[in-house]
Write a structure and sequence with these properties.
Elements (H helix, E strand, L loop, with lengths): L13 E14 L5 E4 L3 E10 L2 E10 L3 E5 L2 E5 L7 E5 L5 E4 L5 E3 L3 H6 L22 E2 L4 H12 L4 E3 L2 E8 L2 E8 L4 E9 L4 E11 L3 E12 L5 E12 L7
Antiparallel strand pairs: 1-2, 1-3, 1-17, 3-4, 4-7, 5-6, 7-8, 8-9, 10-16, 11-12, 12-13, 13-14, 14-15, 15-16, 16-17
């Protein structure tokens, strides 16, 4: 969530709040739907606190626990769900706010990578994309910085497809292909294939907010695991509002 970062030279005070809705639907290996899971809802904020940017996700409607019964899998409420997570820019430590309200360090790198808060390379190339698509906010005017980050990971674009720059990364873990809008340097499609046969295809949509930048309005990811089932995940960011002073 920290790349690209909002710059304090352009944005001051409490910057932005938004609602995040996450929807999941699971499928068995034979393609049979297990049905949609209950929505998960968060309240997202990015604020300037004591001169440093802080990203925070507060859980409004926590994820359910999947329990297998004789007649199938059911989602049941999770009484141990935490209240949220937060991270201060420039710090490696990610804090999770537990059900008791107390902050604790997140020790699981997979959790950090989910939020784009880790430089560690994941176990599969499918999840290794840490460029602008890993962030919910991309500040306007920082296109060159985003291009440098893309080329650092992928090298120069191979060619153009449907007017989009195509970046490709391939290693023993698999292959990752990203299509990027040249004018904003933001990804609109990500395709990954792991060496074990797992696949993922992600599409991204953005809204431009004057004085703020490009907010990732919608992300849709279809994934299939080798020899197992798969699913569809949609992440929607709505009700974006700036709650502090925004300006040069």
């Amino acid at each position: 969530m920290t790349e690209p970062q909002a710059s304090s030279r352009n944005l001051r005070g409490r910057l932005v709040r938004a609602d995040v809705i996450v929807r999941h639907q699971l499928f068995e290996a034979n393609g049979r739907s297990l049905g949609p899971l209950p929505d998960v809802r968060y309240r997202l904020s990015r604020e300037l606190r004591n001169g440093r940017w802080v990203d925070r996700l507060d859980i409004v409607q926590p994820p359910a626990v999947l329990v297998t019964y004789p007649d199938g899998v059911r989602a049941v409420p999770n009484p141990f769900a935490g209240r949220g997570v937060e991270r201060v820019d420039g710090e490696d430590e990610v804090m999770v706010i537990g059900a008791d309200g107390k902050p604790r360090p997140v020790v699981d790198d997979e959790v950090k990578r989910f939020f784009g808060w880790s430089d560690e390379k994941p176990r599969s190339s499918i999840g290794s994309f840490r460029g602008p698509g890993g962030s919910w906010l991309a500040e306007a005017g920082r296109e060159q910085e985003r291009r440098v980050e893309l080329e650092r990971q992928f090298g120069r674009a191979r060619d153009r497809v449907r007017g989009l720059d195509r970046y490709v990364q391939q290693d023993p873990h698999g292959r990752l292909e990203v299509l990027v809008a040249p004018e904003t340097v933001l990804p609109v499609e990500i395709r990954g294939e792991a060496a074990d046969g797992g696949r993922i295809q992600t599409s991204l949509e953005y809204d431009f907010h004057p004085g703020l930048g490009h907010v990732r309005r919608r992300l849709r990811a279809e994934h299939r695991f080798a020899g197992a089932g798969g699913g569809v995940t949609e992440v929607e960011i709505i009700n974006v509002e700036t709650t502090g002073e925004v300006g040069p």
